[in-house]
Design brief:
Length: about 200
C-alpha cells in the first residue's frame, strides 16, 4: 500500500513538471513583452506663432497601416487668434491629414514619431479702424485662408493612456490673395488613448 502511494505521488509530480513551462525565462519574457500600439485617439492644448498668436485645443487620431511602422494621421484644432493689428482678436481652425513613422524604445513605453500633414487653415480677425483714416472707429474683419503643409515631431510616454507632446513647423500657403505665404512654429501637449 505504501509503495502504491509512493508511485502515485511520483506520477503526480512528473505530470505537474511536464505541464509546467520548461523554460522559466519565458515567464519573465511575458512580463516584459513590448507594448504595441495599432491605433490611438486623443487631444490637448496648443500654442502657435505665425502672423498671429494662436491658442486653442486639438483632437487627433492615428491608425497603423498594414502592420508597418507608418500610421495614418488626422488632426483638427481651433481656438483664439490674437493678431498684431487686430484689437479685438479673432478665431481660427485647422483641418489636416497625413502620415507619421513611429518607433519605440524601453519595451514600447517611450515612442517617437516624425510625420507630415496637409490641410487647410482658416482665420478671422476683427480690428477697429484707426484715427486719421476713413474707417476710424469702425469694426472691420479680415479673413485668412491658407493651405497647410505641416512637418511634425512627436514623443509619447505611457501604456494605454499616454502623454504626447508635439513640435510642428506649419507652412501657410496663402490662398486668399491678401497675404504672403509664411512659416510658423507650434507646440502641443495632451494625452492619447492607445490600443
Amino acid at each position: 500500500m505504501k509503495s502504491s502511494l509512493t508511485v502515485v505521488a511520483l506520477l503526480t509530480a512528473l505530470a505537474t513538471t511536464a505541464s509546467a513551462d520548461p523554460d522559466p525565462s519565458n515567464n519573465e519574457i511575458a512580463k516584459t513583452a513590448e507594448l504595441r500600439t495599432d491605433a490611438y485617439v486623443g487631444g490637448g492644448g496648443m500654442l502657435s506663432q505665425d502672423e498671429a498668436v494662436l491658442a486653442g485645443a486639438y483632437g487627433e487620431g492615428g491608425i497603423r497601416i498594414a502592420g508597418s511602422p507608418v500610421f495614418a494621421h488626422v488632426l483638427v484644432q481651433g481656438g483664439t487668434a490674437v493678431h498684431l493689428f487686430a484689437d479685438n482678436g479673432g478665431s481660427f481652425y485647422d483641418l489636416r491629414g497625413g502620415a507619421e513613422a513611429r518607433g519605440c524604445i524601453v519595451r514600447g513605453s517611450i515612442c517617437g514619431s516624425a510625420g507630415l500633414d496637409l490641410g487647410v487653415h482658416r482665420g478671422t480677425y476683427v480690428t477697429i479702424g484707426e484715427a486719421l483714416f476713413e474707417t476710424e472707429g469702425q469694426e472691420m474683419s479680415e479673413h485668412f485662408a491658407s493651405t497647410l503643409v505641416v512637418p511634425r515631431l512627436a514623443v509619447d510616454y505611457g501604456e494605454a493612456i499616454r502623454f504626447r507632446g508635439m513640435i510642428e513647423a506649419p507652412y501657410y500657403v496663402d490662398t486668399s490673395g491678401q497675404h504672403e505665404s509664411h512659416i510658423g512654429a507650434s507646440f502641443s501637449m495632451g494625452f492619447v488613448a492607445s490600443w
